[in-house]
Amino acid sequence: MFLCLATALVHVLLVFLHVAPPNPLSQQYSRQVNAWIFPLFEQNWRLFAPDPESVNRQISARTMHTAADGTVRASGWFDLTAVDNSAVRHNAFPSHTAQNMLRRAWSSYLETHGGDDQPRSERALMVQQYLTNIAADRVADHRGGTFESIQLRVITVPIAAPVTASGPDASAATPKPVETRYLPWWKVVPRGN
After folding, report:
1. What is the per-residue pLDDT for 193?
2. 165 with 100, same domain?
3. 46 part of a folded domain
4. Which contacts (CB < 8 Å, 24+ apart) does range 123-131 have?
5. Which domain holds residue 173?
6. Residues 169, 160: contact at Cβ < 8 Å?
7. What burial class does residue 29 get, using C-beta atoms within 10 Å of its C-beta: 0-12 exposed, 13-18 middle, 19+ buried?
8. In the chain, which stretches have pLDDT less than 50?
9. Are 27 and 109 within one domain?
């Protein structure tokens, strides 16, 4: 009972310091506050002003394993986005996790890493580890086996602009190209995978 109460009080205090205007206390403990808040308790206002997606992303993963004889084997690509889509498609009450975890992790990765896949902050490293953990857990759940490294491939397909009654928009006349991005191989911490 005491542990639950203490945890709840600490949580409320850390969330308060996160959402409060900048002050000496929140600045002094910003590292601890951010470690508690991100990525699970992140605050944003997208519920009230959603930013609709302008692209579809297919995120796939493959794994690498070193066999006992020393040969290195890479698996085929496993479509993580298809797993999320199937969990949502025929479910009357899909979970928020099934709908958004992978997509939000990728959006956070883009915000913190840019186009060169180089982390530039503690938060960037945390987001990279979060994305790695999501991919590794999902591959292990669906494929099983052991692996030491994982690589992600993200295929970005632009969504065509809607055709209006007056005809297609001039900017929609030239479709944007499909982009394929390969992330570096990341080490996976063994957790029974």
Report:
1. 43
2. yes
3. no
4. 123/34, 123/38, 126/35, 126/38, 126/39, 127/38, 127/39, 128/186, 130/39, 130/105, 131/105, 131/106
5. 55-187
6. no
7. middle
8. 192-193
9. no
